[in-house]
Fold each of these.
Amino acid sequence: MIGRFQVMATLQAARAYVLGYSLEEAKSFGLNRAIFYAAAKRGFKSMKGVRGEIKLPKWKLIHKFPKEEIEKIEKNIFVERLGDEMAYCVKLGDRKYFLIGDDLQTPEDFKKQIEDRFKGKFEEAWKEAIEIVKSYDKGVLLSQRYFYEAVYKPRRDELAEKWSQLAKSP
């Protein structure tokens, strides 16, 4: 089943992609924003490191990166802005990866948490998300509030239902 979380992540990734991020960076951003909004909805109760200083325990990163990369990650965290929205970010090589609390959001995480839910039909939903996002003025896309209110909120349930049916189709 495709829920609001997957809709948010997909639309946010499409937003970042349309605004010039690479596909990998856009997927990291999309998952990051979906996690952020889900946590905000719960009052950030279950998220360590979201408020205040970000600390990256090595045990969380070891499964994703070699030891020599972990120190680079810890030293190179910065705030990235997409319009008036900001998120913590780290640059590895020539790519940016977003993080929430103790965890980086990678394209692999996006695939596991978002794409795999579509049962091989993600590309169709992705194309639709890109078309939806492209239909809005850049000012809407650069505004956290306007994006949420104009792009995501009015169609979140419709897209969840439509994309759930897409994922079920043969």
Amino acid sequence: MVIGTIADKLTRSVENVADTVSGAFFDPVIRLGVTGLARSGKTVFLTSLIANLMDRGRMPGLLAAADGRIQAAYLQPQPDDTIPRFEYEDHLGALTARTPHWPESTRNVSELRLSLKVRPSGLLAGIQGPRTVHLDLIDYPGEWLLDLALMDKSYAEWSQETLTRLASRPSATSFLAQAQAEDSTADLEETRARSLAQSFTAYLEAARKDGYSDLTPGRFLLPGEMSGSPVLTFAPLPPQDKAPRKSLWREMDRRFEAYKAQVVQPFFRNHFAKLDRQIVLVDALGAIHKGPAAIEDLRRTMADLLSAFRPGRNAFLSQLLRGKRVEKILFAATKADHLHHTQHRRLTAIMEALTRDARDRARFAGAETQAMSVASLRATVEETIQHDGQTLDCVRGRLLDTGKEAAFYPGELPEDPAHLLGPARTGAGKWLDQDYQIMSFAPAPLSLSPGEGPPHIRLDRAAQFLIGDKL
């Protein structure tokens, strides 16, 4: 174990030195991680970002594009042959078809390299020719990122926290009854362990439908080739001080530690530790629609996720990121096109409030952060209508379930985010003043002019924050 730890540290040190040397003598590379919580639109974000960097007519907020300094953008083979390629062409085809549809969601890690030919600015503009900047885009499920919070927890701590959190959720009733009735000090029987893991996975799937965000362990929902393996066959149980050897409790404890060592740690070592920039996409509107409990859960989830970056708290991450760190992190509330533009500022303020505690606690080891409201692909148009003597600022789009055009008024987001976060923290069952509705819109048929990417909201500003300084 000691030799393995030393070897791992030496490997990371060599990789960091290699990255530094290659950045100094070869074309610079920006590694951008793209992740998001459930239903946040990662695939659409990546597809639209790539399309709009290749055809930059809708990217005035990206200064290098506005100045005309990006002379060309082209796709290249990705540097890592062991990672699946992000299926950009297929996803763009889904969005631009005669009857467009949303592409399949992220279920594994994928990667794509987009190279930009950039003309320098300032004093170097007249003496230096264009240079190539490689943008490596790494797409991965947000549930896997949440697993980072498990690294500093024991099985007993995780079990206690999880069972306490689930006590107030109707969707967890069946699993909680089974876990409480289990004699975890008895000898392990594999059928009992498998039944508990299946029941816990069923709860996680129900919780995702209910709008909750704390869906860990993440691989339970996206098991892939690990489905049915012992490393995914555990569940939280009431703590036992002196569980005997070969008991169900001791085996669950062992499998929890194996999950951290064999699933979580390799993912962060092989992917997360190599990122330069990160965007976290959040369906804040969906959580608001689900109610106060979903908003409070989202706030806690963001705090748990981001506090793991605090120096001195997470020994695993501190060792992993020696000599390297994520320099910028953008938190983006997606689906801004579901609101009239007059409410976008309020959605951004809510996103800032949701991450405020986490940023204050974590301080991100010096990373620069920002919150923003975006729509990767604009699926609606704005419309003002008169209804019952009131003037309502609406959005109009094609409904996902029926395909019919409809104007929709979601309700008025509060000017002060505390009007949402306050009731959420105090355990309110529902919003007292009004319900905040949300509709599912299908992508609108596109008719793009030459040089234009798909329509969006603030995708150019997001790109400027994430990569503008490197261009």
Amino acid sequence: MAPLLAALFNDGSSLPLHEAFSGVFGSISLAAWIFLLVPQVIENYRQSSAEGISLAFLIVWFIGDITNLLGALWAGLVPTVTALAIYFCFADLILITQCVYYNVRNARKARRRASRNPTTPITETEPLLARRESSNLGLPGSHRRKSSTRSRRRSRASSLPSIADDVETSNEWVKNTLSILGVCLVGAAGWVIAYRIGVWRPPPPETSLSSEVPLGAEILGYASAVCYLGARIPQIIKNQKEGSCEGLSLLFFMLSLLGNATYGIGILFHSTEKEYFLTNLPWLIGSLGTMVEDATIFVQFRMFGNPEQTAAIE
């Protein structure tokens, strides 16, 4: 990031340093949000299941994105904020549709298996364990959270370390780290290009301080913040109740943490004036407040998450 900023100021640019940092962090946040849902979509596809993620989490988050979009339109926020809100609404719908599809499809398969074996007592885990034991192909998604949790507990009981598991955890750590660094690089480079060609310019100080947000837009902004803060609670409860983070993408929450952190930092680098701070307070609460909940989910990954993913947060 430092070389990119140095290149800007070598051409005699009069852009203040704090505005440059504000633009860079804002662009990194934008890149993180654009790629945010991709890891979870891929994880669901790889597992052929969406059992790991809470639908209540996604629905409340979707409501937050809708109120955020309406508030941004009403307040007349910068086009990038509005465009990102629109993108998120569509991305949420894609992820929710995928989750509903897998849940319905897998439920139908379970009912068909139960109808073919009416004499077999149906319990919460019996059909799932039977399916896993009968599958010798190792297909993604051929096991459920409870059966995989039991297998993990059995493997943890063993005192013999697995070299293959160590290699897999190392690869997962490297993959997640490179992904985060790549998003930061793309965001920073994107801002430099946008500034060079004149697409991005810092807003005038008098504009950022004197503009008043309509009361309705402010209410929608706080409503979206409440939704963002409350959305992760069902997921945290689900993880704790099942004692597993199986089916969740750790990179999904890492990108969320990166996007929230850089978004808040970008706003504060632009200005710390009281009027500007209060104008952006709803969005700051929604972004920075969820970082605590993301940290809680990281702890859950560390406690009982996927063994191949927990190495990324050690």
